[in-house]
Write a structure and sequence with these properties.
Belongs to the acetolactate synthase small subunit family. The protein is an alpha+beta fold. 30% of the residues lie in helices and 39% in strands. It is elongated.
Length: 186
């Protein structure tokens, strides 16, 4: 079966998978983009990604400096090393962009994500869900006789692991904020 023809029910192939067969490894990078906090800036940045077929794994944005009118967009993206370089270069040329940092290559950084995970269950599954939440230091933010909503902050990998453990215990919903990241040290 070729990569463009898929059987019903099979997973979708992306252009990145096709590129990786050519010898370039697919990498995940976290980019911190400092932009003007004004109408349409986020749309322009996202338009760059969608217009060129670049993938966004995670996206967060918030104002970081009210007096100077600046916001920080954190994007987790994937691609070959040359694609990542193209993304950074093209972002740097956008008018509302002040700075682009690739936190993945610039040194140590801290990444965190917030997730709310809803689990429905009774009996042993309910008890096991509570035990597992303690191990992961998840907080119970809502509880009924049949369900819990857990709040968990951590790396994306930590959240993924918690979600996978909750699946057999009655996981029914997950809401995630996306990655917020910042470089370590001075």
């Amino acid at each position: 079966m070729n990569a463009l023809h898929l059987k019903k029910g099979s997973s979708r192939k992306s252009a990145y998978n096709l590129r990786s067969t050519l010898g370039d490894a697919i990498e995940t990078h976290t980019l911190a983009i400092l932009v003007d906090n004004e109408v349409g800036v986020l749309a322009r940045v996202i338009g760059l990604f969608s217009g060129r077929g670049y993938n966004i794994e995670s996206l967060t944005v918030a104002e970081t400096n009210h007096t100077e009118g600046l916001s920080r967009i954190t994007v987790v993206t994937t691609g070959t090393p040359s694609i990542i370089e193209q993304i950074k270069s093209q972002l740097g040329r956008l008018v509302p962009v002040h700075d682009v940092h690739d936190l993945t290559v610039e040194g140590p950084s801290v990444e965190r994500e917030l997730a709310m995970i809803k689990v429905v269950g009774k009996g042993d599954n309910r008890v096991e869900a509570l035990r597992t939440s303690e191990v992961f230091r998840a907080n119970v933010v809502d509880s009924t006789l049949e369900s819990f909503v857990f709040e968990l902050t951590g790396t994306p990998e930590k959240i993924d692991a918690f979600v996978e453990l909750m699946r057999p215990l009655g996981l029914i919903d997950v809401a995630r904020t996306g990655v917020a990241a910042i470089s370590r040290g001075g």
